[in-house]
Automatic annotation (TrEMBL):
GO terms for biological process: proteolysis. InterPro entries: Peptidase_S1_PA, Peptidase_S1_PA_chymotrypsin, Peptidase_S1A, Trypsin_dom. Transmembrane segments: none annotated. It comes from the Eukaryota. It holds the Pfam family Trypsin. Residues 43-265 form the Peptidase S1 domain. This is Serine protease 27-like. Residues 1-21, 295-323 are annotated as: Disordered. The lineage of its organism: Eukaryota, Metazoa, Chordata, Craniata, Vertebrata. Keywords: Disulfide bond. The gene is LOC115829800. GO terms for molecular function: serine-type endopeptidase activity. SMART domains: Tryp_SPc.
Amino acid sequence: MTIPYSSTTTTPKTASATSVASSSTSMTSSSVVCGSAPLNTLRVGGSSSLATGGLWPWMASLQRGGKHVCGGTLITEQFVLSSADCFSSSTNASEWTVFLGRLNQNGPNPNEVSLRVNNITLSNLTGNNVVVLELASKPTLSDFIQPICVDLGTETFSTGTQCWIVGWGSGQGGVQQTLQEVQTTVVDCGSSASPENICTGFVTLQQGDDGGPLMCKQGLAWFQPAVLTVVNSTSSSSSRRNNTSGFMVFNRLMRYNSFLRKAVDSLPSPAFDNSSSVPNSTVSPTTTTVSICPFNSAKTSEDPLDQTFPSPPLDSSNTGGRAKAPYVQADMITRCSSLNN
């Protein structure tokens, strides 16, 4: 990405995941909420913006050998979600460090903490996969460090919903020194419409953006309906550009429900009451979306859906109790280097 932004595992219980490392811990999040970004004052209807520290407090920099490899997101006090592609070179937990509250890859980061990784748990389904990192210790939550809400399928991202992508990716094979952001908008999927898809305006990710989130605000909380992976033209992909309309089609990978339920015991509740009538953050469907560079379409994974993943507790007056819905995740975009191939 090229828009500057100045901000800011448990061992699996079945053969459906591959775990690398030692012990696991039980994570509880009853007193923690997700999706809260106290310093985020993004205007509705904007395109791209400069921001101050803490805009995306769940954003993580996953590093190996002192270098940024991928992005990730804090989804509980002790677990980080990313793309499994980031770990093709090493799944040794002792080689990885997670930075939270980070803005600059070089330079001062007064609100940053660095955390060792205790356990790495990979899903091992056919096609693209995700990874959950268990941190060796819990960070102190602050305005600059907060978990994001994982979209469990209870959210409706209607046409016009404003969403954002952030990362340190660079088209020159390195990384951006300052965290970058770009806005996109949920659009009608047209001929690609499916309960498993979410479509947005055209954006391009680059190497180093892998593992980062697509983020959309619902009421007062930020949700993550997508984990992004930048892959080369020879890799299978479960997201693609619609060659006719030019928008992005993200497959909602519900097949990871069972894996995530085993890797993460529970997820925090959203930072708002679902029974309240707070409108979604939206922009006009005709708003121009950011286009950085084109890339070709890619193969979509056709793995079967997995079982449902329990959602956070919801207000009983609105849902009739604790709702259950599929875990929703989308990912995988082709790297700029594969454009026009």
